[in-house]
Design a protein that fits this description.
With 377 residues, the chain is an alpha+beta fold. 23% of the residues lie in helices and 33% in strands. Strand 12 (263-268) and strand 13 form a beta hairpin.
Length: 377
C-alpha cells in the first residue's frame, strides 16, 4: 500500500447484459443486468435471498462464469480474466480466514499469491492492519480474536492488495447486533478515509441506507430500482421496493376514485383511505391496488389526523422509547405500528395517517413482495 488512498486507474466498472443461468430450464439468477459502478461510489445491492445479488458479485469476481453478457473496467473487458487478474478485494460473510495462519500471514496471503517479496508483503500487511486498528494483534491466530476483529482482518486482507474495487458479500450477517453497528461504522470510515470503491451485498435495508451512496434493488435477477438512499427510501417505485424500505404494512385495496395529480382514494378496512399513486399507470375505479404504510407513520389516539382506521392491539412490545404494536382491523387485516403512546394488548385503537404517507401501487406491483421469493442463487 503506497499511500493513504489507492491509485486511480479506472473511472467506471460496467456490467452489460450480464445473465447467469444455472439450469437450462427455469428463470435465470441474473437476467440481462446492466449496472455501472463509478469510481468512489459505495453501491449496495439490496434484496431478499435468491434475488441474484450474490450471483452478481460472484460473476464480477470471476467465481462464476457468465451465461451471456460482458463486464468492463473502462475500455478493458475483464469477464474473460481469471479472478486474480481482475484486481478486486473480496470480503465474505464467513471471513474465510486460514485458522492455522497468524493474523499477519492471513493478511499477507493475497500479496504472496501475487509474488510480492517477503519484506514488502510484511510491510503491506502491517499497514493494512493499522488501517483496521489491529496491528497489535498481528501475531495472534484468528481463533484468538472476536468475530468483529476477524471480520476486520478479512477487510485488511482485501485492502492489502490495493484493489481497484472492494466486493463485500453480506460481511456483517454473522455478527451480533452490537458488532454489526460497530463494523458498519468501521467500514464507512475506511471507505471515506481510503477513497475506496465498494460494491456491497446485503438484505438489510438499514445497513444499506447507512453505508451506501447508491442503492440497487434486485428482484428475481432484474434491476427493480436504483438511486440514492434518500430517493429509494422516500419514493420506492413498487410495492416490492417499498417492502424493503420499511413499508411493513402492505395490504390489498380497490380504487374508489382518483383526484388531482397522483391523489387517489381506495377502499380498504371498510373505509376510504386517501393516498398517493406511485405506479406510473392510470388507475380506474374498481381496480385492485396495494397500499403501503410505514409503522412509524401511524398516529395513535387524539392526535390522529387524516385517514382514520380502527384496530385492536394484539401484541405490544417495549422497545425503549417506543412501543411496537401488532394490531388487527375489523376485516382481519394485520397492521404494524410504532408509537410513544401507552397501548395495552386488547385495546381498541383509533389510528390516523396523513395521505402523503400512504403510497398506492397497481396490483401487479405487489406480487412477490418481501423475502418469500423463489431462490435463484
Amino acid at each position: 500500500m503506497t499511500g493513504t488512498k489507492p491509485a486511480v486507474t479506472f473511472e467506471r466498472l460496467s456490467m452489460r447484459g450480464v445473465t447467469r443461468q444455472y439450469a437450462k430450464a427455469g428463470a435465470p439468477a441474473l437476467a440481462e443486468l446492466d449496472l455501472d459502478l463509478e469510481r468512489g461510489e459505495f453501491v449496495a445491492l439490496l434484496g431478499p435471498s435468491g434475488c441474484g445479488k450474490s450471483t452478481a458479485l460472484a460473476c464480477l469476481a470471476g467465481l462464476q462464469p457468465l451465461t451471456s453478457g460482458s463486464i468492463w473496467l473502462d475500455d478493458t473487458r475483464i469477464d474473460t480474466l481469471p479472478t486474480e487478474k481482475r484486481g478486486f478485494g473480496m470480503v465474505f460473510q464467513n471471513y474465510a480466514l486460514f485458522p492455522h495462519m497468524s493474523v499477519q500471514r492471513n493478511v499477507e496471503f493475497g500479496l504472496s499469491m501475487r509474488g510480492v517479496p517477503k519484506a514488502q508483503r510484511q510491510e503491506g500487511a502491517l499497514r493494512a492492519l493499522r488501517l483496521v486498528q489491529l496491528h497489535e494483534h498481528a501475531a495472534k491466530l484468528p481463533s484468538q480474536l472476536s468475530g468483529g476483529q476477524q471480520q476486520r482482518v478479512a477487510i485488511a486482507r482485501a485492502l492489502a492488495i490495493e484493489p481497484e474495487i472492494v466486493l463485500m458479500d453480506e460481511p456483517l450477517s454473522n455478527l451480533d447486533a452490537a458488532l454489526r453497528i460497530e463494523m458498519r461504522t468501521e467500514i464507512k470510515r475506511l471507505y471515506q478515509e481510503r477513497g475506496l470503491t465498494v460494491l456491497y451485498v446485503t438484505h438489510d435495508q438499514e445497513e444499506a441506507l447507512s453505508l451506501a451512496t447508491r442503492l440497487v434493488v434486485l428482484r428475481k435477477g432484474v434491476l427493480e430500482q436504483t438511486g440514492t438512499p434518500q430517493e429509494v427510501y422516500t419514493n420506492p417505485v413498487s410495492a416490492y421496493v417499498a417492502g424493503f424500505m420499511g413499508y411493513r404494512n402492505l395490504f390489498p385495496a380497490q380504487v374508489e376514485a382518483t383526484g388531482h395529480g397522483d391523489a387517489v382514494g381506495v377502499r380498504a378496512h371498510g373505509t376510504v383511505i386517501h393516498g398517493s399513486h406511485r405506479s406510473g399507470t392510470t388507475l380506474k375505479p374498481g381496480a385492485g391496488v396495494t397500499v403501503a404504510i410505514r409503522p412509524e407513520d401511524f398516529v395513535v389516539g387524539s392526535g390522529a389526523t387524516g385517514n382514520s382506521v380502527k384496530a385492536v392491539a394484539e401484541v405490544v412490545e417495549y422497545h425503549g422509547r417506543e412501543l411496537s404494536v401488532r394490531a388487527r382491523t375489523g376485516d382481519d387485516t394485520v397492521l404494524h405500528l410504532k408509537t410513544d403512546q401507552p397501548v395495552a394488548a386488547g385495546a381498541v385503537l383509533d389510528l390516523g395517517v396523513v395521505p402523503e404517507r400512504v403510497l398506492v401501487y397497481a396490483e401487479s406491483s405487489a406480487s412477490g413482495t418481501g423475502a418469500g421469493e423463489a431462490p435463484h442463487g
